[in-house]
Amino acid sequence: MVKYLDNKNSGFNNWMAGQQKSGAKPSKSSGFFWWMIIFLLAWWLFSMWTAPKKNIENKIINTTVVENISNVPVSNIMGDKISVDVQGLRVSQIKLKDYKQDKNKDEKISLLSGDKEFAEIGLLASGTVAPTAQTVWKINNGVMTWHNSDKVDFKRTVDVKDYIITIKDEIKNNSGKNVSFAPYARMINNGDTKAVAVATGGIAYVNSDIERNGWKSLDKKSYAYQTTNGFIGFANQYWESIISLNSPDQTILMKKTDTRYQADTSAAPIQVSAGKTAIIETNIFAGPRDQKILSLAAESITGIEKTMDYGWFWFLARPMSWALNALNILVMNYGLAIILLTIALRILMWPLTRKSYTSMAAMQKMQPEMQKVQKLYANDKARLQMEMMKLYQTHKTSPMSGCLPMLLQIPIFFALYKALLISVPMRQAGFLWIGDLSLMDPFYILPLIMGATMWWQQHLQGSVKQKSNNNDPMAQTQKVMKYMPILFTVMFAWMPAGLVLYWTISNLFGIMQMYVIKRSAKK
Fold first, then answer.
1. Considering the domain boundaries, does residue 42 fall inside one?
2. pLDDT score, position 51
3. What is the number of other CB atoms lying within 10 angstroms of the CB of residue 331?
4. Quick one: which of 319, 318, 255, 273 has its CA closest to 60?
């Protein structure tokens, strides 16, 4: 397509001007191009307009973080998917049994396991005293008990199922007076500031919407929200830790303290009358950012399935992620799954691509006629434009007809890029010499193959030789396009190997398709 747009004698500029003056109807491909631009612009403006305002509230959670709790005993609770350390009000050292730090070692992924990282679930008391982070509970058969001087009894149980930690607090008021307790939760995280093209940092669920505050944003300022119900937490590329209070009217605060990041939430006080008992339940999710797992967790934590970051082209990235996982189940290898998905996508676009290549071939045959028309009406621009339009209509083509497949590749490329980055199953998945398809090819072999296939594809398209003209932007563009395979090779060398594999297979399919179309045209 580029060679015809770049060709000095193609009449592209004349055709565009003729479109405006002659009143001819624009082609379907050009109409699609402009509608796509308008749609994306409207989408962006709408998202900016409807985005919730992040106002800092004066209502701040006034609990102090206690650093030294060494006198509080630690108990370990084992589940099918995770194991967790419980130390009084705090939960930490959450190990994911199904995921390794390194596929060649036995060490498991750990969340909230760094220096002074933890999740704390407690109560703010009014009219009495509640247990603090330094409180030493009595533990009997996994049940934690404590009572204060006002004869208010506290019982806490911690259950682990899949990736959900459920903390149930039972408060029995034997004090003879009415008291109240405001549930609160906080999470302290050291942060993972490694740059990735995925939304990482603080996450809050506010009035049925997800609020994301990246690490760099939290470095600059704090964020506070009011919500009827919600949750707080932190996420990196593959894992997330979330706390959800099952209580209404919450105030959420996210900020940076010293070198760590802190997320707090407190709910409206719960009245416990004399002689009555109240039960408060809190859920913690600690596990992979996998859509299937998060959808199951949503039964306990409303809205957690929305924490996946699929990017702008979520409507493509989400089904692509599902298709990759389904194909992997079928062929038992993510490299083969990417190849099959690429071929399937190219087959779906075959009619459009065929039309594009056919149009380019027609444009090539038109070159002698176009040159004659340009010479014949060189001094009559209006007549030249009309004759060029007639020529395009006779051959049933236009310079824009080859752009549609290229435009469709853009959202597909970015959607697949996002799907590969957020796919936890893709992590540590190998293919041939590549140990991890979610990381760059350590030997740069695949990017070199990709660059070679890109050059081959350009070579098959051919190029129209034209005299060098420093004042001709089309000629300058054609010069730049010659170096595109080199530029793409360097750029793709640092991208996930799975994405480079997709682009390479796509190029090879395009080369094969070009041979088939050329052979059928000759027949």
1. no
2. 47
3. 12
4. 255
